[in-house]
Every structure is written in C-alpha cells, then in structure tokens.
Amino acid sequence: MAPSATQRAWLPPLGVLLLLLTRRAAAALEDGLVNNGDFETVPAGGASGSGLGEGVSSLPGWTINGTVELVESGQKQGGMILIVPQGVHAVRLGNDAEISQELQLEKGSTYAVTFSAARTCAQLESLNVSVWPAATQAVDLQTLYSVEGWDAYAWAFQAQAEDGAASKLSFKNPGMEDDPTCGPIIDNIAIKKLFTPDRPEDDAVVNGDFEEGPWMFLNASLGVLLPTNLDEETSALPGWMVESNRAVRYVDSYHFDVPQGKRAIELLSGKEGIISQMVETTPEKQYNLTFTVGAAGDSCQAPLAVMAFAGDQAQNFHYSPTGNATHQPANITFTARAERTRIAFYSVYYNTRSDDRSSLCGPVVDEVRVWGISRSPAVNSSWIASLLGLVVAVIMVVA
Ligand SMILES: *[C@@H]1O[C@H](CO)[C@@H](O)[C@H](O)[C@H]1NC(C)=O
Ligand SMILES: *[C@@H]1O[C@H](CO)[C@@H](O)[C@H](O)[C@H]1NC(C)=O
Ligand SMILES: *[C@@H]1O[C@H](CO)[C@@H](O)[C@H](O)[C@H]1NC(C)=O
Ligand SMILES: *[C@@H]1O[C@H](CO)[C@@H](O)[C@H](O)[C@H]1NC(C)=O
Ligand SMILES: *[C@@H]1O[C@H](CO)[C@@H](O)[C@H](O)[C@H]1NC(C)=O
Ligand SMILES: *[C@@H]1O[C@H](CO)[C@@H](O)[C@H](O)[C@H]1NC(C)=O
Ligand SMILES: *[C@@H]1O[C@H](CO)[C@@H](O)[C@H](O)[C@H]1NC(C)=O
What is the mean pLDDT of the segment spanning 197-221? Predict the structure, then answer.
C-alpha cells in the first residue's frame, strides 16, 4: 500500500537520507589499516629521486615533518638490505622526524594502534607514538624479538578529543643519531576500537580467553608484541597489564597453535615478560585459578614452563602434554585475602626457536578462569564448631 500524503510528509527526502548516511560513514572510523598505513600509495613522481638519507616532501595520507624517507624493498644501505615489513614500501624516520595523520575518534573510547617497526642501526632506537590530545608512549626497539628484523607492536590509548574534532596520530623518531641514515622504519599502521568483554557470571577474570585485543592483520605471521602497560584502564589487551619491561606476544590461530578460540598470549623473556590482572574476590573465600598451558607451534626449544601467581600462591607448571596434544590444563587453589587479588603469569625459562636460535618464544597461556569453590567464606568448620559450642553453652545456661 502506497503511503498517504500525510505519511509521506514524514519521510525525509531521499537526498537528505543519503547525506545522513554518508556523513555517518565518514564519521565512523573503521578498524584496520589507517589511510595509506602501509605506505604503498607513493607520492606523485614515485619514490625515485629521493636518495639515501634524503626525505620526501609529501606522503599521501600523512603530514610529514623532518626527514622522512620512503624505503623500497630490496633497497640497500652499506651492503645491507633494508627491511620492509610488508609490501613494497615503508618509511624511515630521520632524526626528530615525524609523520602524522588526523583521525575521527569517539571521545572516551579506547583504541589500540598496531604498527610494524624495524631498527636500521645497532644504536638504541625507539619510537614515540602519540595521539594528540591523549597520550604518548616511547616504544623501545632495542630488543629484537624476531629474526626477521622487524616486529609488530600494539599500543592503546583513550580518545580525548571532543566528538567531531580530530585526533592526531603521530610517529616520531626522538633520536639524535650522528648518522642521519639511522632511524626506525615503520609500516603497516592499523587502528582498532577496543571493547572490554563482560565478565562471565561464574568467573572473576575479564578477557581470560584473550579474544579481545589489538588489530592483527590476517597474514601477520609474527603475532603482535604488547609492550609494558601499567595502566589497566587503557590496555591493548583489555583487562590485562603487561607489568614487565619486556613485551609479551599476542598470537592468532592462523599462524600459531592456540589452545582455544582465535587468540592467546605467548610469554617471552622469562621473568621479564609478565601479564597480570587484578580480579574481584571476596576476602577469605577460596578460589580455583584454572588456565591452559601450551606450545605455540613455532619450534620453540623445550623446556617450556609457566610460573603462575594467584594471591599468595605461586606455582610453576611444566608443559608436558600427553599424546599429540598441544596444550594441557593447569590449576591452583588460593584463599583471597582482599577484595582484589592479583593473578599473574610469566615464563620460567628464556626460550628461543630451535630453527634460528635467536627469535624469542615461550609457552602459550589461554582460557584463564577464577571461580569460587567455597560457597560461604565466613562459615568454615572451625567457625561451625565454635558456633555449635556457643549453642550448647547457651542451652546449658538456660537449662
Ligand atoms: C616540526 O618538528 C620540529 C622539531 O621537533 C618542531 O619544532 C616543529 O614545531 C614541528 N613543526 C610542526 C609543523 O609540527
Ligand atoms: C597480506 O595480505 C595483503 C592482501 O592480501 C597483501 O597485500 C600483503 O602483501 C600481505 N602481507 C604479507 C606480510 O604477506
Ligand atoms: C617521547 O615520549 C616520552 C614519553 O613516553 C617523552 O617523555 C619524550 O619527551 C618524547 N620525546 C619526544 C622527542 O617527543
Ligand atoms: C580446580 O579446577 C580443576 C579443573 O576444573 C579441577 O581439576 C580441580 O579439582 C579444582 N580444584 C578444586 C580444589 O576444586
Ligand atoms: C594424534 O594424531 C593422530 C594423527 O594425526 C590422530 O589420528 C589422533 O587423533 C591424534 N590424537 C589426539 C589425542 O589428538
Ligand atoms: C588440578 O590440580 C591438581 C593439583 O595440582 C592436579 O592433581 C589436577 O590434575 C589438576 N586438574 C586439572 C584439570 O588440571
Ligand atoms: C576458619 O575461620 C577461622 C576463624 O574465623 C580462621 O582463623 C581460619 O583461618 C578459617 N579457616 C579456613 C580454612 O578458612
């Protein structure tokens, strides 16, 4: 039935509707690669003409400041082939150089930025990643986690720009090297809006299956490193903190053996790679912490073991699966002493891969759960015994 004239009057004209729709589309930032985040769109005229250590004057999608060099795969420097993490192009940031682009973010939401980076010289190199007006983090590129010479990292922040105002995402080389051709190479920059999964009803752990985390490219075969993050409110791995000075690796089921679902955490660098969470507990109540320990399937050299902490309990779990399983269950019971109890995990050993003997690897942790095993914490046998004694005494007095 055709709408009557009065009904029709309420319908907005098609043009307005389309305009509204396209405006919505323009405002909502999609998860994934940012505008020219892989640097494959090169400036008009190409990368040619910019010699070693010579910067480009423009870069599609980005604003540049300082010497920003477009690096092409196969390009050599001092006999060494420069690393391009993905595709044909990447950029290198010279001393104090910066690239930035504006993003429309939702105020108050937490986002994770994923990017690949490689250092070019042996010097201490780091990269300052910031989102204005929100936060800055210096990411240390000193440790080589992978023999490929580059790694993917993720960093999270909470958007603070008013809705409608732009936030500025920037990458800056804070270094002042004598050699201007030293400086980090960056590539594959993506962003993802994070959400904090609801805590399951019978489980005190948030995101214990690690399914929610930073953006990972489908073919990102090295996983994503999560550097130190002491702020549990803005973590690239919602619910969790990386409280050590080294990173842990976020791995996916397409390239690694993951015990459950599509994501898990691979612990690296022994005690220097710790993940933790403060879980809500009831004082004096008994709990069971259960989790899965596994091997990532990345030819990590045995032995693999995880040290697990739950309140005042600590125990190590050696990975010794039965049959051809790639993971095994583990559990610890503990009595909560406060309303929040820390659970934490690190790798007992410093493991490297058997094929290259230098890439860092370690045990995988997944399916972390904490649940109460004593129903009423205040009522324990000694308490019942004293209550019984009191009742008996009262009866005797009354009698
Ligand atoms: C470019 O970088 C220099 C040195 O860090 C800084 O002083 C200057 O303000 C920057 N320019 C812009 C337009 O951001
Ligand atoms: C990942 O996949 C995309 C699209 O299929 C491709 O362009 C890119 O080169 C791949 N990257 C790597 C590191 O294989
Ligand atoms: C780099 O980031 C750190 C904070 O993480 C900050 O203290 C430092 O000033 C930044 N350096 C530059 C050059 O922006
Ligand atoms: C803790 O959970 C594990 C796995 O479900 C179970 O085997 C173990 O018996 C539980 N511990 C206690 C004390 O209930
Ligand atoms: C072990 O592997 C064999 C062959 O791949 C398979 O048939 C068997 O089901 C596996 N066993 C377990 C416990 O996964
Ligand atoms: C739970 O821990 C106990 C004691 O360490 C162990 O005997 C039992 O096999 C574990 N259960 C599971 C399911 O891992
Ligand atoms: C039982 O309660 C008593 C008194 O409240 C306390 O001292 C004791 O530690 C409790 N025992 C257990 C196993 O929780």
Answer: 93
